[in-house]
Write a structure and sequence with these properties.
429 residues; MgtE N-terminal fold; CBS-domain; elongated; MgtE_N_sf; CBS domain; CBS_dom; PRC_barrel-like_sf; Mg/Co/Ni transporter MgtE
């Protein structure tokens, strides 16, 4: 496949990055450009590449040998694995330029920037040569068709102008549509604060809730404080109760009570129950919304519940069987059915005939160390939590255990990277 000498930045988003021997390195998350002097096209410095561990690193354009429609290939040579940090003289093309409000010369017609082309020069450098813009046309101010213009035909792209004025988020949201919530959270974390707020305001409550659950704690609190109280309460209500409880527990008592009061009663009730437990106990770790059926339910009915695509994988591994009511706290807990057993039994069989009644249960007061040993001993990814009267009150999943076992700030820094003989400083850009 022929390598491109011109490529639009939005099409690079998410492209896989491969080394010279075909080894997978990560995915492109942004393009870094230097500030230009006057109206000259800016030089492209490199790409922000997200490793499988979600750490974002800077890869200089000198290391890029080919940009193809479906992949980016790097040249032979080491790549610095230090975490990417934007410098004061740099712009993130996807994060800061797209959706910028600009003017088309010479009439100064208002327009919005929808994409930016990277073009390789005769000296093998890359620069931002062309801009795809949509102008406002007619008395009603509708957006016209997309036009591709030279960099010097558009004004309003100075650093202060781009970073100071409000931007739209349509292009970013279009990219986020194809990304998992954890990847969107990683992207938001790296964006300048202004852009992070603009994106958060544009996301719907359900999507923003999914993303907030994956953000570092400081980012969660910052975003929540930026939103007005009603929107913040709506987002908390859309979050998993255990994640909402974790976030609320980090706020002051005044803020916590105010937001709980604004949440719908059916959404705040399970959160309030979780807040009664210490965060490092089974009660504080659990989710109050496991998969629960009554003993006269069939295998087919239980399988229908675990097929729900919105159900976390860990929660789908066990179906808990209880006397009515089936909402937590349930009636008397009878046992559980593992998903492998569900798949082996005839669909018309009752779940009561496939119960595992020997699996030990956790108490709400069980400390984190006991919960960890429980998962290791029974090779589980989900476990039941009972109260003193043998009512099911929730389930702990292994991801919540790992969240508390990993070092503080692990979401922000990613997992440790193997970096033998690291260079003392990042390569010059």
């Amino acid at each position: 496949m022929v390598a491109a000498t011109r490529v639009f930045a939005a099409r690079m988003a998410g492209l896989p990055v491969f080394g010279p021997d075909g080894e997978s390195i990560g995915r492109v998350r942004d393009v870094v450009a230097g500030l230009s002097i006057g109206r000259r096209p800016p030089r492209v410095l490199g790409a922000v590449v997200e490793l499988p561990t979600r750490r974002r690193i800077f890869v200089p354009m000198l290391r890029v040998t080919r940009i193809e429609p479906n992949a980016v290939t790097l040249a032979t040579g080491s790549v610095n694995l230090r975490k990417f940090h934007q410098r004061p003289n740099e712009l993130l093309v996807l994060g800061q330029l797209l959706d910028a409000r600009v003017a088309v010369d010479p009439a100064g017609t208002p327009a919005v920037l929808v994409d930016v082309a990277l073009e390789q020069t005769r000296t093998r450098d890359w620069q931002l040569s062309k801009l795809a813009v949509r102008e406002r046309t007619g008395r009603l101010g509708r957006w016209g068709p997309t036009r591709v213009l030279a960099w010097d035909q558009v004004s309003g792209l100075g650093f202060a102008e781009v970073t100071g004025r409000p931007q739209g988020v349509q292009q970013l949201l279009a990219m986020f549509d194809t990304m998992r919530a954890v990847d969107v959270a990683s992207t938001l974390h790296e964006l300048p604060t202004k852009r992070r707020y603009e994106v958060a305001e544009a996301l719907d409550d359900e999507r923003l809730a999914d993303v907030v659950e994956e953000l570092p704690e400081d980012d969660q609190k910052d975003l929540l404080s930026h939103l007005d109280d009603k929107r913040a309460a709506d987002v908390l209500g859309a979050m998993s109760p255990d994640d909402a409880a974790d976030l609320l527990s980090e706020l002051s008592e005044v803020d916590k009570d105010r937001l709980l009061g604004l949440m719908a009663p059916e959404e705040s009730a399970p959160v309030k129950r979780l807040l009664e437990y210490s965060s490092d106990t089974a009660g504080g770790l659990m989710t109050p919304e496991p998969v629960v059926v009554e003993p006269d339910a069939t295998i087919a009915e239980a399988l229908a519940l675990v097929r729900n695509p919105d159900l976390p994988v860990a929660l789908a591994s066990l179906v808990f069987v209880c006397r009515p009511p089936s909402a937590t706290p349930t009636g008397r807990y009878l046992g559980c059915v593992h998903i492998q057993r569900l798949l082996r039994e005839p669909p018309s069989t009752l779940v009561a005939g496939a119960l595992d009644t020997d699996l030990a249960c956790l108490s709400a007061q069980a400390p984190l160390t006991e919960v960890t040993r429980y998962f290791a001993a029974y090779n589980l990814v989900c476990g039941p939590v009972l109260d003193d009267e043998e009512h099911l009150i929730g389930a702990v999943t292994v991801d919540d255990v790992l969240d508390h076992l990993l070092p503080e700030g692990w979401r922000e820094s990613g997992l440790p990277e193997a970096e033998p003989n690291p260079p003392p400083n990042r390569e010059p850009r």
